[in-house]
From TrEMBL:
One of its GO terms (cellular component) is cytosol. This is Alkyl hydroperoxide reductase C. It catalyses: a hydroperoxide + NADH + H(+) = an alcohol + NAD(+) + H2O. It is an enzyme of class 1 (oxidoreductase). Its EC number is 1.11.1.26. InterPro entries: AhpC, AhpC/TSA, Peroxiredoxin, Peroxiredoxin_AhpC-typ, Peroxiredoxin_C, Thioredoxin-like_sf, Thioredoxin_domain. It comes from Shewanella holmiensis.
Length: 189
């Protein structure tokens, strides 16, 4: 990435997702007005991917309670997502939208396309209700992610968004002390 995606506004897209037994249209407009996670993974019917998607499914209820919608995205089609959902116990528990991006438009919009393979890197993006990217994390293909750490990052992003002038230090958890940057703190931490 030559330019940071942080604080950029999501680009327009239109795609089809497999969601709760149906094919549904999803656009960037669906991400506005609430917190969203766009969770890219390389491909259906693979190895690390189902462990990540299953972990996200295990945390989905908590994320929903936090006002967060999750969208998983791969360059597979929505038909492939349906077939995977029907054939895997792990994937069958997913109730968040699984977006198909066979043209790679969304994957390229977020800068995670592996052009020579037509696959996405493991990219996780947290988007605020205004459509701005607040967290961006990209992993190589062999490195799985943790949904519990993502939950903590979203909690910190939501806290900072609603508490002007405060920031969350490393390992911050809800209820813990935050910082209010000022000249008085310089050299004291």
């Amino acid at each position: 990435m030559s330019q940071s995606i942080i604080n950029s506004t999501i680009k327009p897209f239109k795609a089809t997702a497999f969601h709760n037994g149906a094919f549904v249209d999803v656009t960037e407009q669906d991400l506005l007005g609430k917190w969203s996670v766009v969770f890219f993974y390389p491909a259906d019917f693979t190895f690390v991917c189902p462990t990540e998607l299953g972990d996200m499914a295990d945390h989905y209820e908590k994320l929903q309670a936090m006002g967060v919608e999750v969208y998983s995205v791969s360059t597979d089609t929505h038909f492939t997502h349906k077939a995977w959902h029907a054939s895997s116990d792990t994937i069958n528990k997913i109730t968040y939208p699984m977006i198909g991006d066979p043209t790679g438009t969304i994957t390229r919009n977020f800068g995670v396309m592996i052009e020579e393979d037509g696959l996405a890197l493991r990219g996780t993006f947290v988007i605020n209700p205004e459509g701005q990217v607040k967290v961006a994390e990209i992993h190589d293909l062999g490195i799985g992610r943790s949904a519990s750490e993502l939950v903590r990052k979203i909690q910190a992003a939501q806290y900072v968004a609603s508490h002007d002038g405060e920031v969350c230090p490393a390992k911050w958890q809800p209820g813990e002390e935050t910082l209010a940057p000022s000249i008085d703190l310089v050299g004291k931490i």
